[in-house]
Specification:
662 residues; alpha+beta; Immunoglobulin-like; 5-stranded antiparallel beta sheet; 21 strands
């Protein structure tokens, strides 16, 4: 015998109890309508119970008002309502379905997607009402599913028509863990509010989390974390779920319609596929203790999927213990990534390794694809230990002193005084021109020949060409007693520019290709060709022949200094740089001496005009600046860099026992 209430006067016979909430004074029954034998659901609100309250009664009254205006196959229809001595009853259409909370099973992603689409269709209908209807209590208990996988949304007791702000004094209505932050704090509700509860419900199904335990997945910022509880799945599907439960309303899908449209395009059953640009990496260090790197391109050819992954270095007995995120000598520019075409740089720090050794390791790529892991073999060859470096400072000092000595000779022999009105002007003009000319000439040569061009040699050659051009122009004017000022300027300009051109080309003579010095015969051939071409210009032929021998001598001098450094362990490229910088310092110092001499001449002879001498000012500034720059570069190359190398060698021997073995 049962204690079911008697509803026959109202035309209903109770079959069984479906559920109850004694605290709220609510009981749900399955009943038959006596006249039609149709099964119905009767929700009884027992407001006469001691613990019940009128707020609950108002919720039922509000639910009735809403249901009377709703007509959707996913919402059980309102049929009737009546009062009893114990309370108030509402009659609804019966659906032979179970709540998602009552079903214990492993839901497949495709099944969860179909549930999501069905609920979203119901929400689209509710949001299309005028005003929109917000359910406010979407959770597994309020979503039913029948044997044909049809979905029904029930319990509209907390539903509201329209959004708007809720009074501060109002009681928060909803279920903890399924309410969005704006509902929890009685803020304005929007069309996005119900999406949070639906997203949390779907996460419960995906992770097997019970409704009462959903709070364990929510952090202090109301963000739900669930990826660690599930196997690899389609990235777009997981992104969609995360966007559904974004705490910030603006970051969530703005309506059920936009969420539905985004989900339809996602194939939750299809996993990405990994294609690697290479299954092995070979790295060779060109310098001692340098970092070497290689780039691996990862692509996913499967449409409508998003690949995500993370890197890990496989354990090796010779390596110190490490975590997946921190390896002792192998690192990644991007440890985690997401995308369908990603370039990842793998970096090996050979400063932790022994010199002249080969290391073989494996790096593992974990992805949301099938298979989940992909292995890449990596081989690293370390560079040999450099030889201790000791510069041949005697030859460098001799080279640095050569041009100042030449400048002193120029001053003492009176070459600059041979044409007083032109000497300083045409000494500084070539200096100004060479600031632009070497760059243009070097670029043209490099573009035309597709060969390496010695930029520094070109600059020095132009400097020399300018000085020799000035000397020969003065000599020509004196020898041929040219008195016309215009003719003097013309000849001086012509010869100085010729010297610049010849100097630039000659400066390229000791240039290197593939970091190797050319042999002497190749250099002579180049100068021979250059002389043959210039012989066609009668005005230059005498000076060119003289310059040819001068440049041959300079070339031999440069090479001698270079080889002296190489014998002492200095790499060929560095030795060449030091030699050319030494020549540059020498040249700058020589020019500075000449300018200082001219400055003294102005003070002695024409003190009234010194303030208007633009060329003198330019010469002073340029000479000092070039000297400082050249000195800085030379000290860095000849002193600081060798000391750094020697320090590295000492540190290597000191820590050799602690370095990682192959």
């Amino acid at each position: 015998m049962n204690n079911y209430p008697e509803f026959s006067p109202q035309g209903y016979e109770i079959i069984s109890e479906l559920g109850h909430n004694f605290t709220g004074g609510r009981v749900t029954y399955l009943a038959n309508k006596l006249t039609t034998k149709q099964k119905v659901v009767i929700k009884q609100f027992q407001f006469a119970q001691l613990d019940s309250n009128w707020a609950e009664y108002q919720a039922h009254e509000q639910e009735i008002k809403l249901l009377q205006h709703l007509n959707h196959p996913g919402i059980p229809r309102y049929l009737d309502s009546f009062q009893t001595e114990a309370g108030f009853c509402m009659v609804q259409e019966y659906k032979n379905a179970q709540s998602l909370a009552s079903i214990s099973r492993n839901w497949k992603p495709q099944e969860i997607k179909q549930i999501a689409l069905s609920v979203l269709e119901i929400l689209i209908y509710l949001q299309a009402q005028k005003p929109s209807v917000i359910h406010r209590d979407i959770k597994p208990e309020n979503i039913l599913i029948d044997e044909e996988n049809k979905i029904y949304l029930v319990d509209f007791g907390f539903a509201r028509s329209g959004g708007g702000e809720v009074a501060v004094s109002s009681v928060v209505k909803g279920s903890m863990g399924f309410m969005p932050p704006e509902q929890l704090f009685n803020r304005e509700l929007t069309l996005a509010s119900d999406l949070y509860g639906l997203g949390a419900t779907l996460i419960c199904l995906l992770t097997g989390t019970k409704s009462a335990d959903i709070g364990s997945l929510v952090d202090a910022n109301y963000q739900i974390h669930f990826r660690h509880l599930i196997p690899p799945q389609e990235r777009g599907w997981l992104n969609w779920l995360e966007k559904m439960v974004e705490p910030n309303t603006n970051e969530r899908y703005q309506s059920a319609k936009t969420a539905f449209t985004a989900l339809v395009k996602i194939n939750v059953n299809q996993l990405p596929k990994v294609r690697l640009s290479s299954n092995s990496i070979d790295l060779t260090a060109g310098e001692f203790r340098e970092k070497v790197a290689a780039t691996v391109t990862i692509t996913n050819p499967i449409p409508n999927t998003i690949l995500s992954g993370k890197w890990e270095v496989a354990p090796h007995p010779s390596d110190p213990p490490h975590t997946p995120y921190d390896h002792s000598w192998i690192s990644f520019d991007t440890h985690k990534f997401e995308g369908n075409q990603v370039e990842c740089k793998i970096i090996a720090d050979t400063s932790k390794l022994l010199a002249e050794k080969t290391y073989q390791r494996q790096i593992i790529l974990h992805t949301n694809s099938e298979p989940e892991t992909h292995t890449i073999n990596i081989q690293v060859e370390t560079a040999s230990q450099p030889k201790p470096q000791k510069m041949h400072y005697w030859s460098i000092g001799l080279l640095c002193a050569s041009y100042p000595i030449l400048s002193l000779l120029v001053i003492n022999l009176g070459w600059l005084n041979s044409v007083p009105e032109l000497s300083l002007r045409w000494f500084v003009v070539p200096i100004t021109i060479i600031l632009v000319f070497p760059a243009l000439d070097t670029t043209i040569n490099a573009t035309a020949t597709h060969k390496d061009v010695n930029e520094l040699g070109s600059v020095l050659g132009v400097l020399l060409g300018g000085i020799f051009g000035l000397f020969f122009s003065s000599l020509t004017i004196l020898l041929f007693s040219i008195g016309n000022s215009d003719l003097k300027i013309f000849l001086t300009t012509l010869i100085v520019l010729g010297g610049l051109l010849l100097g630039s080309e000659a400066g390229n003579y000791p240039s290197k290709k593939d970091n190797n010095l050319r042999d002497n015969e190749g250099g002579k051939g180049s100068i021979g060709n250059f002389v043959a071409v210039r012989l066609s210009f009668l005005i230059f032929q005498i000076f060119v022949i003289i310059l040819d021998f001068v440049f041959l001598g300079l070339s031999c001098l440069f090479k001698s200094v270079v080889f002296q450094q190489i014998k002492r362990g200095i790499p060929g490229q560095n030795a060449a740089n030091v030699t050319l910088l030494s020549a540059g310092v020498s040249l700058s110092l020589g020019i500075w001496l000449v300018v200082i001499y001219q400055f003294g001449q102005f003070l002695l002879n024409t003190p009234a005009k010194i303030q208007v001498s633009f060329y003198l000012i330019v010469g002073l500034i340029w000479g000092f600046a070039s000297l400082v720059v050249m000195l800085y570069l030379l000290v860095n190359q000849a002193i600081i860099q060798p000391r750094k190398v020697n320090k590295l060698i000492a540190e290597y021997h000191q820590n050799e026992e602690q370095l990682i073995k192959p």
